[in-house]
Each structure stands twice: as C-alpha cells, then as structure tokens.
Design brief:
Helix content: 10-25%
Number of helices: 12
Distance between the termini: 61 Å
Structural class: alpha/beta
CATH architecture of the largest domain: Sandwich
Largest sheet: 8 strands, mixed
CATH superfamily of the largest domain: Exo-inulinase, domain 1
Length: 483
C-alpha cells in the first residue's frame, strides 16, 4: 500500500469528515483491493452510520469490519455496506478483535464519549491509524494519553472537529492572516438548540440483542434505562459531556483557533442551570463560560433558550438569553424582510430588549415616510434604532431590507452608594451600522410608586429578541458583561 507522509496527509485534509482521513492514505490513481485502506468502524449508530456511508462510498477504502454492542445497529450497517459495495463486512461486539487483526489499517471510533480513549489508545499502540469523533477524550487526562500514544508510535490521529477542514475556514484563515481585523482579543462560540425533554422512566431490561455490560464498559455498573442509552447518553456524566462537550466541541475549537491560542486557559468561569424539569439529564441545559488566557485573550461560550436556528443557520425572533445581565456591551447583526405592502410599524418589526425592559427597536425604516404625524416626535428619522416610547434615533441609518445591519449597544446600570442613594442613572449608547444614534441617553427609573422600584433598578435581567410576527433574522450576537 502506498502511503503519504504525515506532512502530506495533514496538507490534504480539506474535505470534511472521515473522507479527509482517508484522503491522505492512498495514491488516488489506484483503487484495487490491494491498495485500498482496510477500515473498521466501532460504534455505528447515529454519526457512526454516516461514517459507514462515507467510507463505503470512497473508492480508496474498504469497510472490512463493523463493531457495535447492538445487534440491530450492526445489521443495519451490514445492509448499508452490502448495498453500496457488494461486500459483507465482518461483525463483532468486541473491539479488541479488531485491534488484534493485523490486516486492518485504520479504525473509526464513534462510540459514546467514555469509550473514545479506551479504544483509541490501544489501537495506536497496535499500529492502527485512528479517526476519533469529538470530543477526543471523555476527561482531560485521557487526551494527554492519546497525544502521547500517537507520537510514541508514529501513528496518525484525526479528531472529529472537521469544521477546521472546510473551505470557508481556509478562507477565514486568509482573512485572519491578512491582519485586516487587527489583533483578535475576544472570540465567541455560541450554540442554540433544544434537545427536547425526555420524561423520566423506570429502569428496565436491555433490549434484545444489546450487550449492555459491554456498552457500560469503564462506567459504573447500573440497571439499564432507555433515557441513558441511544442518543441521550451524552446528557449523563458517566458516558458523555453534555451539549458543551458535544456540538460545543466544534464551536469551541473554531473560536480557539481564531483567537490564536496554543496554551490552556489560566482561568475558567462558568455558570449553568436547567430551565426544563429535572431528571432527564445531569448536565445543565444552558451554560455561559469564559476562558481567560495568560496574554489577556478571552473566549466566551454561550447557549440561548427558546431559540430556533432556521434559514441557513440564522437565529429566529422570540429568543431570550438564558443568563441575566447587568451592564453590558452587545453586538448583533439583523436582517429585516422585504415587505413592500406593509406600512410603518408593520414593516420588519422586532427589537432587542435589554434587561427585558428597554427596547432598541428594529423596523425597516429605509426611505421612511411619515404617514402618521403623531409618531413624528419619536420617529423624525424613522423608528429603527429608537428606544421605544422614549426617543427616536438622531439619524436614519437604516439600510434597505434584506441587507445585514448592526447594532452596538453599551448599557450601563444605575449606580447606588452604600446608603442606597442613586449616584448615577442607567444610560444607553447605541450605534446603528457604526454610527452613533444615541449617546449616553439617560433611561428613566422605575416609577417611585411601583413596588420595590429601587430593587428593580438594581436587578439584572435577560436579553430578549422580540417576536412581532415578522421574519426578522439575527446572527453574530456578542454579549460582554462589564463591571
């Protein structure tokens, strides 16, 4: 078999997923059985079945073995390989038979996280090359063992953070390298998804054909429960790493790469909670994490609740931050729809609420025309950018609909001395498409007659993207809390 050097291999991993892992092995001019890579896959449910399809479709590789603890999953994998290639792979429940088979060149590991390194490290020691799904390790120390095993044995390991290998990432790398963005000090990874809610169920016997003891492996022995098995195992600490260590691994990897850090952070602060009923998961269903590095750089990770990712990975209206904020810097991009028959407040209406109280309006105000004079006091220059029911923007900076626009908002909470006397009011500065439309605008306090008005001024609150029924879309939202 003709193999590339490690350097050549790494230079060719530009297509996503396992296809890139195979691309470094074989001279593409050859596809005979003797020159194909003999690949075994361990853990073929979910993303594992996707890898089965990818490798079976790659003429540089040959699926020779499948390993899974669920006989029904194995049967599906065999059918898929046979349909695509005409060959019938070997099957086993025991990954050790694959490691011991010297005819197998490479292994793809897509098991639950707690099995990643216990399989990958022995495979490397046996001379196999390995593709291991994200995260590479279930706990920190395992990752170090994986790196050491690969280096000591001169083997190739590819981690399943394939976003690194995409064409758009390569183009982004050129932008960063050019210096046009300056010195990057802060990056942000964020994730919006809803895994639903699995009502707690009683323990039961494992399904027929499932080797549950082998599935548990190094984890604590416990009765079978379907909420801790296929799909939802990632929500429990003994087997997975929650959303943060699942899809979050992709987001964090890209943010760390763009930040240009090569060392571990010196400080990590994190907050998480559960907004859904307890019992169906052990990890928080929302998290806000800050990673601080020795040179002052910061990576921020956030999750949002009630949000929906739609229309080519854009954020829909009706989203509320899971975390409450005080004084903040906010950056967001929004796009108003084209609604030519709508008028005034019906054209692309949404808004961003700070502390769920003060709204910076979002409306399609391009070429704004006053049809109702009573609004002129607030809308001389259109309503987009106005602080609702308080003040309109200094100037209409609205771009045409279907154009991405930006808000940069600096909100400062009211300040009180030790005696409770207010010494500074709440203020807001707003830039619309880079132009100041409000400069330290003083926000009114809660009415004195309102119960506990001072406590309300002191309290933090969420950020909310209002839903007025119009298809306004959002992206690239940054929230940085200030002292």
């Amino acid at each position: 078999m003709k193999r590339y050097t490690r350097r050549r291999f790494l230079s060719t991993t530009t297509a996503g997923t396992v296809a890139a892992f195979l691309g470094g092995y074989v001279d593409s001019a050859s596809s005979s059985p003797n020159d194909q890579i003999a690949v075994a896959l361990i853990g073929i449910n979910g993303i594992g079945m996707y890898h089965v399809r990818q490798i079976a479709a790659n003429r540089l590789a040959r699926v020779v073995a499948l390993c899974d603890v669920d006989d029904a999953v194995l049967a599906r994998g065999v059918r898929r390989v046979k349909e695509m290639t005409g060959n019938t792979p070997q099957t086993t429940r025991d990954y050790r038979t694959i490691i011991d088979d010297k005819s197998i060149d490479a292994m793809v590991i897509a098991t639950p996280h707690h099995w990643h390194c216990p399989i990958a490290v022995p495979a490397l020691l046996a001379g196999k090359d390995v593709y291991v799904e994200k995260p590479a390790s279930h706990v920190f120390q395992e990752g170090r063992l994986l790196v050491d095993a690969a280096r000591k044995n001169g083997r190739i390991v590819q981690h399943g953070t394939q976003m690194r290998s995409s064409r758009v990432t390569a183009e982004a790398a050129e932008v960063l390298k050019s210096g046009i963005l300056g010195d990057i000090k802060i990056t942000k990874a964020w994730n919006v998804q809803d895994r639903g809610f699995a009502k707690p169920v009683s323990d039961s016997n494992p399904p027929a054909g499932v080797d549950y003891d082998r599935w548990l492996g190094p984890a604590k022995k416990r009765p079978f429960n379907r909420n801790r098995f296929h799909g939802t195992w990632r929500l429990f600490r003994e087997y997975g790493n929650g959303d943060f260590g699942d899809d979050g691994a992709h987001d964090l990897d890209m943010a760390a790469w763009a930040l240009g850090v090569a060392e571990h952070p010196v400080r990590i602060t994190a907050h998480g909670s559960n907004v859904k009923p307890p019992g169906y998961r052990e990890f928080p269903d929302n998290m806000n994490v800050s990673f601080e590095f020795a040179d002052g750089r910061v990576l921020i990770y956030e999750e949002w609740r009630d949000g929906q990712i739609i229309d080519d990975r854009l954020l829909d209206v009706g989203t509320t931050s899971k975390r409450n904020f005080g004084s903040v810097l906010i950056h967001l991009e929004f796009c108003c729809p084209f609604m030519p028959t709508a008028r005034g407040m019906q054209r692309g209406n949404s808004g961003i609420y700070v502390k769920a109280k003060w709204e910076v309006q979002i409306i399609d105000s391009f070429a704004w025309h006053h049809e109702n004079r009573k609004f002129e006091r607030l809308s001389k220059f259109g309503r987009c950018g106005g602080i609702n029911e308080m003040v309109g923007p200094r100037i209409n900076m609205s771009f045409p609909p279907l154009t991405w626009q930006t808000y940069d908002i600096e909100f400062t909470m009211a300040k009180f001395d030790d005696s409770g006397k207010k010494i500074a009011p709440a203020m807001m500065t707003v830039l619309h498409n880079g132009v100041v439309i409000h400069d330290k605008y003083v926000l009114p306090p809660a009415p004195p007659e309102e119960a506990d008005s001072q406590s309300k001024e002191r309290a933090k609150g969420p950020i909310f993207l209002q839903d007025h029924g119009n298809p306004v879309r959002y992206r690239n939202i940054w929230v940085v809390e200030r002292e």
